[in-house]
From TrEMBL:
This protein's name: Delta(14)-sterol reductase LBR
Catalytic reactions of this protein: 5alpha-cholest-8,14-dien-3beta-ol + NADPH + H(+) = 5alpha-cholest-8-en-3beta-ol + NADP(+); 4,4-dimethyl-8,14-cholestadien-3beta-ol + NADPH + H(+) = 4,4-dimethyl-5alpha-cholest-8-en-3beta-ol + NADP(+); 4,4-dimethyl-5alpha-cholesta-8,24-dien-3beta-ol + NADP(+) = 4,4-dimethyl-5alpha-cholesta-8,14,24-trien-3beta-ol + NADPH + H(+)
Native organism taxonomy: Eukaryota, Metazoa, Chordata, Craniata, Vertebrata
An example molecular function term from Gene Ontology annotations: Delta14-sterol reductase activity
Composition skew (Basic residues), residue ranges: 76-95
Family stated for the protein in its record: Belongs to the ERG4/ERG24 family.
EC number: 1.3.1.70
Amino acid sequence: MPNRRFADGEVVMGRWPGSVLYYEVQVTSYDDVSHLYTVKYKDGTELELKESDIRLQSSFKHRKSQSSSSSPSRRSSSRSRSRSPGRPAKGRRRSSSQSRERKDDKKKTTQESSIAQLVLVLFKPSENNTRRYNGEPESTERNDTSRVTLEQKLKPDLETERVLEQYSLRPRKEEKKKEEIYSEKKIFETIKTIEKASSKTKELEFGGRIGTFMLIFFLPATVFYLLLMCKQDDPSLMNFPPPLPALESLWEARVFGVFLLWFFLQALFYLLPVGKVVEGLPLSNGRKLHYRINGFYAFVLTAAAIGALLYFEFELHYLYDHFMQFAVSAAAFSMALSIYLYIRSLKAPEEELAPGGNSGYFVYDFFTGHELNPRIGSFDLKYFCELRPGLIGWVVINLAMLLAEMKIHNQSMPSLSMILVNSFQLLYVVDALWNEEAILTTMDITHDGFGFMLAFGDLVWVPFVYSLQAFYLVGHPTAISWPVAAAITILNCIGYYVFRSANSQKNSFRRNPADPKLAYLKFIPTATGKGLLVTGWWGFVRHPNYLGDIIMALAWSLPCGFNHILPYFYVIYFICLLVHREARDEHHCKQKYGLAWERYCQRVPYRIFPYIY
């Protein structure tokens, strides 16, 4: 077995795979079986290299110093030999040769000057030609002699430059320097090309180009199908397909105007100078964006506006009567927004593109989002849509369903099932807005671009699918007893506790791992400088926040009873979504953290459900 050459912790020069470039790395370990060194680059990347791809730093520094110091030593020794009194004849010969060189240089310079002057004499334009070229009369030329004098002074210099370039009369040192600069530019261009190619999205999700193309049509169709089914007297799966309404009944300009008013009202609340300004996580170029945390203030202002409308007897159940038209308006707006986002992303710099939406395929990048953080000035479009119009709109829709139930069934107060659904989901929305800063550490903000997937999800899927239970209860009232309501409430509280405490642990640890309040948490260090929690909720399962989400989703659906499976679509969808996200997170974390993630998976074997999955 050959002995290892480099020790652990030694700083050496490692060759980047697939190139001839060497970078400074640190040896972290050595595998005696495969004879590969595990090295860590300055950016935190860990790779396995062969011994032949690793060099000592001294070899690079020695070559550089040798090439730079050899020439001066020769010159100094030659000068000392020429001045030696013991060799006068040789010294005189060297002096004569040096004088001949100076004469040749002077003669060459004289020739260059003579040729340049000759060309200037032959090709010097006359004053009349100059006047005709400038398009000015002769009288004006006489009055503006200062400008003519300036042109006459500048033209010989420009002509001389042209002649020297045409006849290659420059000294060889300048030509050599020019070649060196050109070669350096070529190296930098090559490195830039390699970096640009490495930033491309290579692994496609959602079925690649074909899958994302189908999802662009499948997601809106799913929303409309669910809403049409809820309108049926018997929303059973056996009644497929539901009767389709006339196309002209799906669109109304007034409804679209109300939707635009809602969207821009939330944008106005977003721009209000209230709430603190915080920094997001560092981007790939090291820059941190600033975000104003005022989502809860926007919710309070919205509640005050809705209260004023109800005080003046505005019929809020108008939302229920035109629910399908509102869904169509939101879908049309999200599509227009997605097109705008993709067009503007084509001019975005390479470092501002999303890691997962830079494949080079139009359909895939359009769906997943090409630009990571599209902004109009300080207005962050993705961050705004993530929590404001859709999430707050979800609560307003639930309230409209509650009022519609009371009106349609002539009730003095809403049913217990409707109260539970509204209360549980209101708690979820208020919690998200109160802990708005925590969203800055999620994959939606740090990794996913803003394209059709998030635009449609934020503006259509969240408000119109998440309110499915309340919409269902309007047409299909379900009576539950107080003990059942108490049990469902306890279940929702358990899910909320798991969800909130897990997210708070993660967000606090990412923000400040050295916080004394988190001293009880243990973690596995990684090459990126971040740590992987192995205690608390994150030592119980790998994604405890997803576990809390699923428990709450079940509690939201139970008040609808068990007559139909339609209200439980949200639970089924949520499980599928979180399993997909979990698989995506697993792949992303394995690439990001490398060997540390493998140790973490051994320490925490269960992904979402303890002892099950």
